[in-house]
Amino acid sequence: MTSSFLTNRQRDELNASILQYIAASGLKASHEALRYELGIQGGGFDDDVSNYDGLLEKKWTSVVRLQKKIMDLESQVASLQTELDILPSSSKKVADPANWLPRTCRYTLLGHRQPVTSIAFHPVFSVLASGSEDTMIKIWDWELGDLERTLKGHTKGVLDLDFGGRPGEELLVSCSSDLTIKLWDSNDEYKNIRTLKGHDHTVSSVKFFPDGDRIVSGSRDKTLRIWAVKTGYCLRTVVGHSDWIKAVVPSLDGELLLSVGADHTARVADVSTGDCRLTVTAHDHVIECCAVAPAASYTYIAALTESKRTPPLSSGFEYFATGSRDRTLKIWDSRGNLILTLEGHDNWVRSVAFHPGGKFLISIADDKTIRCWDLTQGGRCIRTIENAHDHFLSALKWAPSIIGNVPSRISGTKMNGNGHANGGSNISDGRLIRCVVATASVHLDIKVWTS
């Protein structure tokens, strides 16, 4: 017998369908000959294949319909390609990912019952997680706008989320007002694999270290804690803040921790010792958010300083930004020198993010706006999206850049519809910028902004 692409079950179903068709056509001799060739002995034919009545005809007509549909689609593609070829060259330009800024809301995701507090993008797949005061975490497909699942485990509001872990072993971490941190396995239906306890008050912020083996948390108990992902043990407790820690983020190399809080200060601590490297009284009110500048921004920020000397791109911590209830954003260097103050928001600044291409800073606030600041123009606000949500904005995240050689079926690098860079890269380590931003609101919704 010649090799077949069918499985044993598929082959048996095909044989039974053919036998049924021959019997229904009254071809008794052919029917018996085929039964003999197939080694089917004894028993009545009607009992053997009664479940396959008409199956062969249905399959055949389905194939014909699919062939016609394929031909129609190929004709449409050819027609559209002809139209595209005759367009002026200026009409075919794709926006440079390094200059892309959010403008259009692609999806509004609804499902939470109380204010949404946090969002996080999966590092590889088109997955977005959201946390809410309703104690639940929801997992969405941001390319389709579909809700995939709801995670329950926390007993009070979820305040922060982050994806991390080693490649292929990605985890989701969450923290809550219930004083706990939970790890969820994204490769095993988001099973809660570990719960970390140790903080004495609300856990406000949680982030993975770049190595994926550790996480850091910040709490209303005024401490930072560093945890081992594999064991759940607390490796170190870092003290220094005199009030509620609102946000914490590791440096790009994982050697330092930047934290901000209700004590109006930004602190930089050494991960290995817990010692304070820098304390800056950064604002006149509670500092809600902070972000470490990526290496791609060093050139643009350095141009705003007196020395104008660009730091080495290999450095993991040169500049950072803070956002406060005093309605301002500030950009600092690693020695605590204020470089720039950005004014324009009319209410508390809630979240800030650097553009992966390095030229811009993006912020959201309780004034319901998204603001885009151009570092090449002295920090001028070049875009304001008014009424981005119907109520206060609570969270902002830029989709992480992807490794350039990830297969397109995983990374989505095919572009034109999924927000990814069209083959080009503006990041020195060979990553591709994804033109996707997500924002969340106390109005219970999440919005996905793409090109």
Automatic annotation (TrEMBL):
Species of provenance: Lipomyces tetrasporus
Gene3D superfamilies noted in UniProt: 1.20.960.30, YVTN repeat-like/Quinoprotein amine dehydrogenase (2.130.10.10)
WD repeats (start-end): 109-150, 151-185, 196-237, 238-279, 319-333, 342-378
SUPFAM superfamilies membership: Lissencephaly-1 protein (Lis-1, PAF-AH alpha) N-terminal domain, WD40 repeat-like
Full protein name: Nuclear distribution protein PAC1
Keyword Cytoplasm: yes
GO biological-process terms attached to the record: cell communication; cell division; establishment of mitotic spindle orientation; microtubule sliding; signaling
Keywords, alphabetical: Cell cycle, Cell division, Coiled coil, Cytoplasm, Cytoskeleton, Microtubule, Mitosis, Repeat, Transport, WD repeat
Annotated PAC1-like LisH-like dimerisation domain residues: 8-41
Record's function text: Positively regulates the activity of the minus-end directed microtubule motor protein dynein. Plays a central role in positioning the mitotic spindle at the bud neck during cell division. Targets cytoplasmic dynein to microtubule plus ends, thereby promoting dynein-mediated microtubule sliding along the bud cortex and consequently the movement of the mitotic spindle to the bud neck.
Subunit structure and binding partners: Self-associates. Interacts with NDL1 and dynein.
Example of a GO MF term: dynein complex binding
Gene that this sequence comes from: PAC1
UniProt KW RNA-binding keyword: no
One annotated Gene Ontology cellular component of this protein: microtubule
Assigned protein family: Belongs to the WD repeat LIS1/nudF family.
Subcellular location: Cytoplasm, Cytoskeleton; Cytoplasm, Cytoskeleton, Spindle pole
InterPro entries: Dynein_regulator_LIS1, LIS1_N, LisH, PAC1-like_LisH-like_dom, WD40/YVTN_repeat-like_dom_sf, WD40_PAC1, WD40_repeat_dom_sf, WD40_rpt
Superkingdom as given in the UniProt entry: Eukaryota
Pfam families to which the protein is assigned, alphabetical: LisH_PAC1, WD40
Record's comment describing the protein's domains: Dimerization mediated by the LisH domain may be required to activate dynein.
